[in-house]
Amino acid sequence: MGESLTQPSLLPPQQSELKRIAKALLLSKTASCGALVFALFVLVAILAPVLAPHDPALQDLKRRLAPPIGLGMEKASPEFPLGNDNLGRDILSRLLVGSRVSLVVGICTILVASSVGSLLGAVSGFYRGFLDNSVMRLVDVWMAFPSLLMAIAFGAALGPGLANLVAALSLTNWVVYCRIVRAEVLSIREKTYVLSARAIGAGDLRIVLRHVLPNVLAPILVVSTLQMGTVIIAEASLSFLGIGVQTSVPTWGGMLSDGREFMRQAWWLATFPGIAISTVVLGVNLLGDGLRDALDPRLRNR
What we know:
The chain is mainly α and 302 residues long. The chain has one domain: MetI-like fold. The chain is 68% helix and 0% strand. The protein is built from twelve helices and no strands. The longest helix is centred in the middle third of the chain and has 37 residues.
């Protein structure tokens, strides 16, 4: 009877923190909405070959510029609910398959750019001195050029292809992670637990990998989520200009490029891929804002 009614948490600290973050995301309507949109985007991209009702490359010139259903126009068919493009290809199937390119490019670019940028930023902030000055001057020069212009230059130099597109966008976005991680490491390197690890003889590599980088995962995760939308827009822009993947592969940017010449007589060619890009980017940004609020200790008690 004399025992306290307050029971300590049986969860490890890591699981307790993950549970708190998940609860904060669920309580946020905007973050939940963004997570739902992004989850649907991933699911559609994975199941695109199964969900696509037609071959996205199959041409039928008899159905050229056929309108979507519901507009009361001739040639509209329930078999092609979003209509057909200038070569008679099914727009819905091309939208579904095109989502795979955006997902693969977005995830791969974030993984490569965050890994390279975070490692350089951690080493630069930890060692300071000449190495720090050299890396930061390189970052300053890199950021002096517009990111999209650099992506176009790298994409044109590397040539078309999925791997080259990921490389071009990674070379453009690594500086964002480098600056943020360096700023965090400058503060963390003076913390008591880092000084204690150094006092007991821990090597620099062990300190960076075990004590520094794990404590900068929160800002990396937030920036990665927000950068996903930027990468998707950049991929669509390069595909729109014909610098992305091969033209035979359906992409949202390529569909926008094909539809720009027919905006007056067939507005749906560019409208539906534009809506898809806007919806996914909005969902990712809402999720990123929710993660930022959930991981920011200054906002926990508000």
